[in-house]
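Q: Convert this sequence to structure tokens.
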Amino acid sequence: MVGDTIELFHERNLECRLLAPSLNIVCPTYSLAEMMMMIEKLLETGRTLAAQMVGLFLAAAFISTAALAQSGPLQIDITKGNRDPLPIAVPGFGGDTQLGAQIAQVINDNLRRSGLFAPISEAAFIERNLSPDGTPNFANWNAINARAVVAGAIEPAGSGRVQARFRLWDTAAGSQVTGQQFTADSGNWRRIAHIISDSIYKALTGEDGYFDSRIVFVSESGPKDKRVKRLTIMDQDGANIRYLTDGADLVLTPRFSPSRQEITYMSFAGGQPRVYLLQLESGQREIVGNFPGMTFSPRFSPDGGKVVMSLQQDGNANLYTMDLQSRQTT
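A:
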């Protein structure tokens, strides 16, 4: 029904706009009654979250248009956004309940920090011990105003690995929105939670999530007269902090490769500015180039096959690219 209603608006407006120039006509406007009849029909039949959001958007747009037409110019002062977060329930995952509770907590924290979701406290839950193999009692979740609910499980898969499964349900429509299962090392349980958070975010907003990402930066410590700068990496939520250099040399301008498996940065090891390439998994470090006059801001090309750097010669700073395979500079 959402598609039918939008298509109706689209077809009528498109026909008018195509004929207007040749026939010298003005496109008709919809009456408020006609608009509201179509919106009412949409809201009555649109049981999914997406359908209801489209209906409410159209209602707000048409009512605002009608108000302008009937009362003349309208001045609106916008001082801040006012989008209510979506109430969502993420109970502890079944199976390994201790690990499942930790995963659910990370998912709740991720969604809450996004500002688009309002995770419901577990104390309000009527139904507990959800399983991804069953179907929730949607009346129980609608009663606490949960617009979506997640059912998951985390179980041993042998050799120090675990299998994670989850399903995301739309409580109003009583239907599954998405579901996944995958296997990973048990030590990567936080990343499992981030990946699930990304899936939920994508399914309910239509935008890619950002929870399964890392931040590389230069951390500083020590007294003011003897600061130590180390190359550091952490998860986007501040967990899993790891130092990549020992602080013996000054490091600057770290940048990820497109694959996120390598970092390029500048170091003053030996008193000379050089651009280095660091493999995150192995910790292997190599010099990209050792040129007189090398300056700041190394960057990867979009395909990850080259590095762009700045070289200063004869008082002028110019940009150069180096092919990481051939080590040719242009």
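DSSP finds six helices and 16 strands in the chain.
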